Amino acid sequence: PMASPSENLAYLAGLFDGESCVTYKQRLEHRKGKPRAYKYWYIRIEINMTDKPTIDYVHKMFGCGSLDYRPPYPHQNYGQYRWKCSHRDAYKVARSLLPFLITKKNDFKKIVDHYENDT
């Protein structure tokens, strides 16, 4: 039988609880030719694994983000496949996973709150 949408999200939440990296912070950027630096929000969710079909599944389920391959370092046997998304795509992903997350719930909630509560 096919998994229900909530079963798929629960599975993905477990995957993201264990394997994802969430970045939510303000950065300063200095633009060439501009006198002052400006602040901007760096919001990103990524997941790295050696298993390509799982990363492809994440990409297919969310319908956003980008995929790439990171070759192995000299001491590693395997490279890693990475899926990442940022900004409003990260918000969409965070909002859909939030009810199912445990370990990374607060990290994902910051992203959701940023888009739902900031004006």
Question: Quick gist of this model?
Answer:
This protein has 119 residues and is of the alpha+beta class.
Question: Any chance you could write out the topology, listing elements then pairs?
Answer:
Elements: H1 5-19, E1 20-29, E2 38-49, H2 52-62, E3 66-70, E4 80-86, H3 87-97, H4 105-117
Antiparallel strand pairs: 1-2, 2-4, 3-4
Helix pairs in contact: 3-4
Protein traits:
4-stranded antiparallel beta sheet; 42% helix; 119 residues; alpha+beta; 4 strands
Work out the helicity level. Answer: 40-55%
Assembly annotation: single chain
Question: How far from one another are the termini?
Answer: 44 Å
Secondary-structure element sequence?
Answer: HEEHEEHH
Q: What's the total helix number?
A: 4
* Beta-strand fraction estimate: 25-35%
SS-derived structural category: alpha+beta
Number of strands: 4
Contiguous low-pLDDT stretches (5 residues minimum) are none
* Mean pLDDT over the residues: 93
Side-by-side strand order of the widest sheet? 1-2-4-3
Largest sheet: 4 strands, antiparallel
Describe this structure as you would to a colleague.
The structure is a single chain. The chain has helices spanning 5-19, 52-62, 87-97, 105-117; strands at 20-29, 38-49, 66-70, 80-86. By secondary structure, the chain is of the alpha+beta class. A four-stranded antiparallel sheet has the order 1-2-4-3. Strand 1 (20-29) and strand 2 (38-49) form a beta hairpin. Helix 3 crosses helix 4 (105-117). The longest helix is centred in the first third of the chain and has 15 residues, at 5-19. The protein starts with a helix and ends with a helix. The mean pLDDT is 93.
